[in-house]
């Protein structure tokens, strides 16, 4: 087998890392069975089309698309969680904050306001030391709920369109792509807790309500 390219390897490592978010977690009151899926997933990215030279984006539109997430607010869950930039560790794990009340935005993903790509934000469902995390009830978030992401000095609103539960090694490739339709993906662990880890990842997909 040939060695994968750096980009493909990075996605693989990140997917594995998100599956391993529960390595330090303890059994909580989450249901042992996987949460039911809900809603309709965004369409897959279209094949790349032939491109022509176009005018450069204006300074205003470029700036509007380059805001780093600061806070995720979910009124339905009474959550307002700070967000820290998160890279991939040497062990291939997404370096989300150890504090379960804080979330991590993958620095390789899109930013709120970008016209393409997934804004990928993840967090612990709970930890042995601190208990429940900000995303503890993510599996209960219904389709239609609003999520607000504060970025820079503005806030981008999203509406939940789908919720999915994946085996921890089966996160979809679209989560790590920059050519999808614009979307937000919140990720945490879920399902049964066995052998020191949760068996699944819960992913909530949300579409932007408007652009800043």
What does this molecule look like?
The protein has 212 residues and is mostly beta strands. It has one domain (28-42, 63-208): Sortase (Sortase, Chain: A, Beta Barrel). The protein has two helices and eleven strands, in the order αβαββββββββββ. The longest helix is centred in the N-terminal third of the chain and has 14 residues, at 6-19. The protein is globular, with a radius of gyration of 17 Å. Mean pLDDT is 78; it is low at 1-13, 19-33 and 48-65. Residues 38-64 are annotated as: Disordered. Keywords: Hydrolase. One of its GO terms (molecular function) is hydrolase activity. Residues 49-64 have a biased composition (Low complexity).
The secondary-structure element order is HEHEEEEEEEEEE
Global structural class: mainly beta
Would you give the CATH topology? Sortase, Chain: A
- Percent range for β-strand residues: 25-35%
- What topology, given as strand order, has the largest sheet? 2-3-4-5-10-11-9-8
Parts with pLDDT < 50 across at least 5 consecutive residues: 1-13, 19-33, 48-65
Helix content estimate = under 10%
Record field, number of beta strands: 11
Total separate domains: 1
Shape: globular
Radius of gyration: 17 Å
CA-CA gap between termini: 45 Å
For this structure, what is the CATH homologous superfamily?
Sortase
CATH class: Mainly Beta
